[in-house]
Design brief:
Elements (H helix, E strand, L loop, with lengths): L4 H11 L3 E3 L5 E2 L5 E2 L1 E3 L8 H18 L5 E5 L2 H13 L3 E4 L12 E2 L7 E9 L3 H12 L3 E10 L3 H9 L4 E6 H10 L7 H10 L12
Parallel strand pairs: 5-6, 5-8, 8-9, 9-10
Antiparallel strand pairs: 1-4, 2-3, 6-7
Length: 216
């Protein structure tokens, strides 16, 4: 049976350690939350085979989910390169949204040509709580864009993030997610099968650190 895109991307990210699982030695996020997973999708750019898989999947998702799109807009900084490559594959214009306006020159928040009413898809590398991508979408809306939705490479699937995206009226289509990565990691021996439940408990409630103890 042919593997799903979610599974192929999950395996690709694991193979280059763009997604690194360490349930026995949790990472600590800037917020202080302890996490069994670390995701750095910038590593995709230095791995040509996985890069081709991911960028083609972004382009395919735009075609399938947002056929009316006029322009891709990447989030700064991690989404910029992915938006650029996918836009090249699609033959579409692209730009990016800064995390804040420049303090010099034209003081742009949005870089690249964007006309009022244009239909935009936001390209994001990673979604956890959804704050940064929602902020970018709001900036685009304020500039007069019609934001169709988001294509992201990976999402944790956290309830807080899902709720915030829904409240902002934003659809998100991720290439892969924590569930798919956990399943692939267990099948390939990166983690123990019993660790899958621990990862999903983290996803369901990141503030509850009971998963760290190792009891599923």
């Amino acid at each position: 049976m042919e593997k799903s895109m979610e599974r192929r991307v999950a395996e690709g990210l694991l193979s280059i350690r763009a997604v690194f699982l360490r349930p026995e030695e949790p990472f600590t996020w800037a917020s202080g939350i302890k996490s069994p997973i670390y995701c750095d999708n910038r590593l995709i750019l230095t791995a040509p085979e996985v890069r081709e898989l991911v960028e083609s999947a972004i382009a395919d998702t735009v075609r399938e989910r947002y056929p009316a799109a006029d322009v891709l807009m990447g989030t700064a900084t991690a989404g910029i390169a992915h938006a650029a490559i996918a836009a090249h594959l699609l033959g579409m214009p692209m730009g990016y949204v800064r995390s804040g306006a420049k303090d010099h020159g034209r003081q742009n928040r949005i870089e690249g040509k964007l006309l009022p009413g244009q239909k935009v898809v936001v390209v994001e590398d990673l979604i956890s709580t959804g704050g940064s991508v929602i902020d970018a979408a709001e900036a685009l809306r304020e500039a007069g864009a019609d934001v169709l939705g988001i294509v992201s490479i990976f999402t944790y699937g956290m309830k807080k993030g899902l709720d915030r995206l829904a409240a902002a009226g934003l659809a998100n289509h991720s290439l892969t997610n924590l569930d798919a990565v956990a399943a692939a990691a267990a099948d390939e021996g990166y983690i123990r099968p019993e660790d899958v439940a621990r990862l999903l408990r983290f996803r369901d409630d990141p503030s509850d650190e009971s998963w760290i103890g190792g009891n599923a």
